[in-house]
Amino acid sequence: MLCKQLVIITGPCWRCRKFMKLAVTHVVGTGDYNGPDEFSKEELNMARDHGVFIKKQYSQTSKEIYELLPIAFNQKQVVEASAVVAVLGDLENIRMAEKIYGQAVDAGFMPADTAKSMVEHYTGMYSSMPPEAIRQIAYTDGGLVSMQLMLVTRAKGYDTVPIGGYDKQKFMEAFRISERYIPIMLVAIGKAAKPGHPTVRLAVDDVAFFNEMPKE
Amino acid sequence: MLCKQLVIITGPCWRCRKFMKLAVTHVVGTGDYNGPDEFSKEELNMARDHGVFIKKQYSQTSKEIYELLPIAFNQKQVVEASAVVAVLGDLENIRMAEKIYGQAVDAGFMPADTAKSMVEHYTGMYSSMPPEAIRQIAYTDGGLVSMQLMLVTRAKGYDTVPIGGYDKQKFMEAFRISERYIPIMLVAIGKAAKPGHPTVRLAVDDVAFFNEMPKE
Question: I need a surface site. Which of A70, A125, B100, B167 has the fewest CB within 10 A?
């Protein structure tokens, strides 16, 4: 039996970013969500009774937020944050080599023939690399980029929540992301509603070793 | 036929970090390197003729440097840098959970029962996770850590060279690293001998998209 739910969450307005109650109907076990423009009269009344402000232009584009909530295992930061950046790895990044080295030539940083031989070198290298090695590079580079993103965000006065635990398969489907890309992490960004929990770090002697690994 | 080479490189003294000529003999095609303490008289003379300062205590501990040079496909930063940090990923990182949460309890950041249930939660989660998912986390977290390492290093007035292209299998063997760990990257650290090459970045519109991917 199909079970239909009326879900009400507090999320940012897609236009003014203010928090408001948003409603959506959801057929349990599916990825189908309907906004208020597709509600029955009974559903509209039920939502209004729960304090949802029904106005078509404010709710119609919230599909991504509703979809992301169950995908992120209901971690509420994905709907409460001002923005969520999904960091992706490009498995065909080598296709960008010509553009990047072309820009380096245009900027006067590199002679054209050096750029040409670099592009040839890397294109050859990538074409002979096992897919697993390319994925490893994408995961590591994704970590490098994510750290920069979080530190730059913090430097601008915002806070971030990196989210590694989410349903990556469903995320790729919901946002129709091509297989060229792999999901790295979600980074929720916004003004912190309250300070983060304080955390500890292992001592450097627990994680760093000189020339050889300690015996376990 | 075995071919023996006398290799002379300029590398930092293991003790005073000053650059000096270092010699080693190497049987081509093998990982066997011998320092001056195992040189024949002829080899000693040949090294001296090329300006190598032969003194046992200065050359005997350079094994790691000699080994790392061919492993890093002869990228000279690995021998010229003041230090090389090999960033590793720990595939059994969950074994540290109890220690980390214990420190959080000791610091007064978390009640003991919360820590206990977190450790149980994550231990259960990791034990049911496919090995490939754990590796992906290690590669991404390795990227996060490497970026922090490079930025902290830079903030202290040093420069870095991240090296992703090296023989990871040989690296693991040469430094006898257990299979618990996976190699992420090498980070050469030191005072820059000359400024780095200027580089370009793709425009944000080339790499970031709002809500959906552009059609290719």
Answer: A125
**B198: nearest CB among A99, A109, A200:** A109
| The most confident of A23-32, B79-88, B156-165, by mean pLDDT | B156-165
Three-state DSSP class for residue A143: helix
Query: Using the beta-carbon criterion (under 8 Å), do B176 and A212 form an inter-chain contact?
Result: yes
Cβ count within 10 A of residue B198: 10
Query: Is B146 domain-assigned?
Result: yes
Number of domains in chain A: 1
B57 and B113: one domain?
Answer: no
Cα distance between residue B76 and residue B12, in whole Å? 12
What residue in B sits closest to A99 (Cα-Cα)? B202
* CA pair distance A141, A131, nearest whole angstrom: 15
Read off φ and ψ for residue B50, nearest 5 degrees.
Answer: -95, 15
Same domain, B105 and B165: yes
The pLDDT > 70 percentage for chain A reads: 88
Complex prediction ipTM: 0.74
Place of tokens 């993103």: A149
Bridge partners of residue B158, in order along the sequence: none
